[in-house]
Amino acid sequence: MLSGLVQQSANCKRTQASNVESVSEVLKKLATAIICETTLRITVHRSTVWMDALREAQKQSFCASFLLKVTFFGESSIDDGGPRREFFRLLVLQAGESLLRGDNIKFFSLNVPALVQRQYYHLGVVVAMSILQGGCGIPCLSSSVYNYIAYGTCTSTGVNSCDIPDLSLRDTVERVIASTSLDDLKAVFNEDGPRMLLMECGYFAPLNSLDLKPLILSTILDFHLMLKVKASMHQFLEGLQTLGVLSEIKSQPLLFEPFFLYAKLNIDADILRSILRVDFSENSASKHTTEYSAYCNFNIFIEECNDETADGCTLGDLLSFFTGCSTIPPQGFNKQCTITFNHGSDRLPTASTCSLEIRLPTCHGEDYGSFKDAMVLALKCHDGFGQL
């Protein structure tokens, strides 16, 4: 943990009035800027969502105030919210490959060609649209990055070494932390790689005390994780100002944290069950019996996803199958998620991400192994809305 070693250059106050508005109330006010009567229709390939979206955003006809309607190439669907949520989720994943860096917790990258093409700006625009049109934002960022977005501070706040995306920088930081003597500290920077990392920061002072460790750590991390990529972050903020979103973030920063900060999946088995209503057949005892068996199997599958024993399937995979989102949006969904049942011979579950409905097959009876195989196949191998 670096938080005990890194000296902070500024303390971010995180206080809000006791009568703070809810996320839904704030977004409802901001969403008045969306012209629902006019739609912005775009068609994208699943494998190139970000580049297709970028091409659309660079057109003069593009307007972030229009209601977005998404069609995935080769898939038959009517966008009543599901494809749009799926679009926002895939876009963040793909844009992150070139504009962000890090495994789970991400920082901005310095991509000069992307800066010239204003890709960071367009990412900010789409994230603003996501927040106002039912998406999850970009919930993968470091708290240091969010502090810059919300408070304007450009320091590496509470960064763990395991979250540092650059391996050479991570190794240098860990070796500095592990240094227990001045000789240990000097030995780190006697090597070309670590010495260059420090010199890039403009640090040329002699290493004459072990007490310099906190200063060295904060200098290296502040520069390489934040200051070096400030142009990228600034351009992103320009786009995020679209429709007044950035101003509202700065006004109520705590309220918007879930749209930006990385957190482990915000659902567990109980939470997932709590958002699902089960529609059992009322007038048929035989149907009710088979539906109950399917529902019991589904609950076992939920527990295995929660425990990560469902052959690689997670609760996020399951949630995205019938909602288009791998996490629950901070503002919630706009309608009830439901479980219904298919009494035909189809062995695979189906779903509608627009109506937030998952249809469970009843043909497996009490055979959980067969039911699980069908669920895993559906979650891992479905090819989009044309197959749901």
Description:
This protein has about 400 residues and is α/β, with parallel strands linked by helices. It has helices at about 25-30, 50-55, 80-100, 110-115, 120-130, 145-150, 165-180, 180-190, 190-200, 215-225, 230-240, 245-250, 255, 270-275, 285-305, 315-325, 370-380; strands spanning about 35-45, 65-70, 100, 105-110, 275-280, 335-340, 350, 355-360. The protein has a four-stranded mixed beta sheet. It has a two-stranded parallel ribbon with strand order 1-2. It has a two-stranded antiparallel ribbon with strand order 3-4. A hairpin with a 5-residue loop joins strand 3 and strand 4. Helix 3 runs antiparallel to helix 5 and helix 7 (about 165-180) runs antiparallel to helix 10. The chain is globular. Mean pLDDT is about 90; it is low at about 1-20.
Give a short overview.
46% of the residues lie in helices and 10% in strands.
**Approximate helicity band:** 40-55%
User: CA-to-CA gap between the ends?
Assistant: 44 Å
Instruction: Tell me the β content.
Output: 5-15%
Number of strands: 8
Radius of gyration: 24 Å
- Computed structural class: alpha/beta
- Segments where pLDDT lies below 50 for 5+ residues? 1-20
